[in-house]
Amino acid sequence: xxxxxxxxxxxxxxxxxGRKSSAASDAGTTAAAPPPAAVDAAPIIxxxxxxxxxxxxxxxxxxxxxxxxxxxxxxxxxxGSSTLRKVDLQSGRVLQQVRLSPEYFGEGIAVLxxxxxxxxxxxxxxxxxxxxxxxxxxxxxxxxxxxxLTTDGRSLIMSDGTNQIRFLDPTTFRVTRTISVTRAxxxxxxxxxxxxxxxxxxxxxWQAQTVARIDPATGRLLGLIDFSGLLTPDDYRRGGVDVLNxxxxxxxxxxxxxxxxxxxKLFEVxxxxx
Length: 274
Prior knowledge:
- The chain is an all-beta fold.
- Helix content is 2%, strand content 49%.
- It has 1 helix and 23 strands.
């Protein structure tokens, strides 16, 4: 299941550790190997400063997060509770929402070309919505599980729970290339919520308070951001909070936002070396 027990500290989850079910491999594509010189390079460890704190819906099992023109677009999961929603950043109020059919478990989203693209977990099916209407305009298929989605402005970039990240044509949904993310020569799997930030892919590592910074050309691990300590002990005492998951970037304002599944808060953060 996607529901988990919070793990304290910085946890790096490598291949072979199950999260939901074993994610299928990306059949028919070739993974790019990291440059030999980079295999054993120690990643830079980053920490953060909190710039602002915003309210977040405690009922939102966050799977995907996008910032666009002052609002957040959010995908939530769990069968029977999955939604696509537009959320006011300042208040956390849901401005617009569509519910998925109960059989679907909503996953990552991306906004590209005036459309919202949303994955589902196990159905190998995605949906394309009108940005303003929130109406489904078409569906698309992919192999394996759907975990997270982002875009570099040209391609859709998708994770499936392994250490593989696929680049998809947003019209045909054909896989154009695949990268393999490694750390010290080993696959770095459980890559979840993705965000394109200044030419890098930021990837939440599922069940960890850690976000990986990834070179989109090679899959090389550029750094790890330790987001432990965002929530207070009182936030945990109130119960219901789950893992860190949800990254959004405001390119115009150079602002980074993070939250988690059923978290009461969303944070604007500034990343710096530890």
